[in-house]
Write a structure and sequence with these properties.
This is F-box domain-containing protein. Pfam families: F-box, Kelch_FKB95. InterPro entries: F-box-like_dom_sf, F-box/kelch-repeat_ARATH, F-box_dom, Kelch-typ_b-propeller, Kelch_1, Kelch_FKB95. It comes from Microthlaspi erraticum. By secondary structure, the protein is mainly β. The chain has a domain of 51 residues: Monooxygenase (Up-down Bundle), CATH 1.20.1280. It contains six helices and 25 strands. The strands form seven sheets. Strands 3-2-1-25 form a four-stranded antiparallel sheet, with no helix packed on it. It has a four-stranded antiparallel sheet with strand order 4-5-8-9, with no helix packed on it. A hairpin with a 2-residue loop joins β17 and β18. It starts with a helix and ends with a strand.
Length: 369
C-alpha cells in the first residue's frame, strides 16, 4: 500500500467531525438547553448564530419544558474601594455558579452602564432582575434598570426619587413604597412598562405582607414600620425554615442568631461550630442573604500577606468566602431551638490587593433561569 492509499484509507476510517452548526436546529436548541445558564456569556462568544439563539425566548421555553430551570444567586460586591485596582470595576455584579462542589463567583459580563447608586433596592421576576432607586452623588434617584441574560438596560423612571425603598413583586407587578418624604407608593407593570401611583398605604401593605408580626416584609427584606415611615434592617434576612414558617436570621460578632418575631429574644443558631474551631467564622461575617430553597448564604473575607523568606511583604491577596446554610427545628426539654447545617463553605473569589473594610456586600437576588 503506497502513501496515497494509506491517506485515503485513513480518511475513510476517520471521517471529519460533524460541525455543531450542521446539526438540525431542534437538536442544537435541545443541547444548549441542557447547559447551565451561567455559561451563556461564554457560549455567546462562539458565533453570531449562537449569540442570537442564546438570547432567544425559545431557549428558555425549551429549558422550562425540559425541567432544566435552576436558581442562581446574583450578588453585588464593593471590592478594593480604598486602593482601587485598575482591572476592577467598583462595585460589580457577580453570579454564584450553581454547580455542586464548584461554587465560584463569575463576573457579570456587562458592566454597569452608569455610576452605581448607593442604597438602592433589588427585586427579581423569574430570570429578570431590577435595580430600583438609590443615591447618586448624594441625591435620590428615580432610575430603574433591568438585567437579563447578563445585559443591563434602562427602564422608565419612577414617579418619585427614592432611597432604599421597600419593593415586592405581587402578581407580576413591582410595588414600591418608602424611601422618600411622600406617603404613597407606586407600581410598575413590566408588560406595559409604565408606573402608576399606588393607592394602598404602608399600613395596608403591612397587613397584607405580615410574614413577620409587626414588620413589613417586602422582597425578602425586613422593615420597621413607624406610622407611614419605613426603616430597613439590612443586617437581617428571612429564612423559610418550614413551609410558610419564616424566621429572622441575624449576624452578630462571629455567630448567627434567629428569632420568631420582634417580641422574641435572639437565640444562637446551633451546629455551626465546624466552620472554625475557635468561633463560627474565621473572620467576622458581614452579611447574610437568602439564597432560595430555604437556605441562606453568609459572607466574609480574609486578607493574606505574602511572605519572602521569614518576612511579610506589602503584596497581599483577598479572598471572598461564602457558606451556604440550611436550617431545621429541634426541641430540648420542650424548648424550640434552631440548628444550622453547613451545606458548603469555601473561598468563591480571589483578587490581588488588600482592602481591610469589613463592609463589601451590597445586594443579592435569586434569579430563576
Amino acid at each position: 500500500m503506497n502513501m496515497e492509499e494509506m491517506k485515503k484509507s485513513s480518511s475513510e476510517s476517520h471521517p471529519p467531525p460533524t460541525s455543531f452548526s450542521s446539526l438540525p436546529y431542534e437538536i442544537v436548541v435541545s443541547c444548549l438547553a441542557r447547559i447551565s445558564r451561567i455559561h451563556r456569556p461564554t457560549l455567546s462568544l462562539v458565533s453570531k448564530s449562537f449569540r442570537s439563539l442564546i438570547a432567544s425566548a425559545e431557549l428558555d421555553a425549551t429549558r422550562s419544558r425540559m425541567g432544566k430551570t435552576e436558581e442562581c444567586l446574583y450578588v453585588c460586591l464593593d471590592l478594593n474601594k480604598n486602593k482601587p485596582n485598575p482591572d476592577m470595576i467598583v462595585p460589580r455584579w457577580y453570579a454564584l455558579a450553581p454547580i455542586p462542589k464548584r461554587q465560584k463567583l463569575l463576573p457579570v459580563s456587562d458592566l454597569f452602564p452608569y455610576q452605581h447608586p448607593e442604597s438602592s433596592t433589588i427585586v427579581s421576576i423569574d430570570s429578570e432582575m431590577y435595580l430600583i432607586g438609590g443615591l447618586v452623588d448624594g441625591k435620590r434617584s428615580r432610575r430603574m434598570l433591568f438585567l437579563e441574560s447578563h445585559r443591563w438596560r434602562s427602564l422608565p423612571d419612577m414617579i418619585v426619587p427614592r432611597e432604599r425603598p421597600a419593593a415586592e413583586v405581587i402578581d407580576g407587578k413591582i410595588y414600591v413604597i418608602g424611601g422618600c418624604s411622600k406617603h404613597w407608593g407606586e407600581v410598575y407593570d413590566p408588560k406595559t412598562q409604565a408606573w402608576e401611583p399606588l393607592s394602598p398605604t404602608t399600613l395596608d401593605l403591612t397587613t397584607q405582607k405580615s410574614v413577620v408580626p409587626g414588620r413589613l416584609v417586602m422582597g425578602g427584606k425586613v422593615y420597621e414600620v413607624n406610622g407611614l415611615s419605613l426603616s430597613s434592617k439590612p443586617d437581617i434576612c428571612l429564612a423559610e425554615i418550614e413551609s410558610n414558617m419564616w424566621r429572622e436570621i441575624h449576624i452578630s460578632g462571629s455567630e448567627l442568631f434567629w428569632r420568631e418575631n420582634e417580641y422574641s429574644l435572639w437565640c444562637v443558631v446551633e451546629g455551626l461550630e465546624k466552620l472554625s474551631p475557635s468561633s463560627y467564622f474565621p473572620t467576622r461575617p458581614v452579611s447574610v442573604a437568602n439564597s432560595g430553597g430555604r437556605r441562606v448564604t453568609v459572607w466574609w473575607k480574609t486578607v493574606e500577606y505574602r511572605r519572602q523568606g521569614r518576612h511579610y511583604t506589602k503584596d497581599c491577596k483577598t479572598d471572598i468566602w461564602c457558606a451556604e446554610i440550611s436550617f431545621h427545628f429541634f426541641q430540648i426539654y420542650g424548648i424550640t431551638r434552631l440548628r444550622g447545617c453547613i451545606e458548603w463553605s469555601k473561598s468563591v473569589y480571589t483578587y490581588d490587593g488588600c482592602d481591610c473594610r469589613s463592609e463589601f456586600f451590597l445586594h443579592s437576588a435569586v434569579v430563576t433561569h
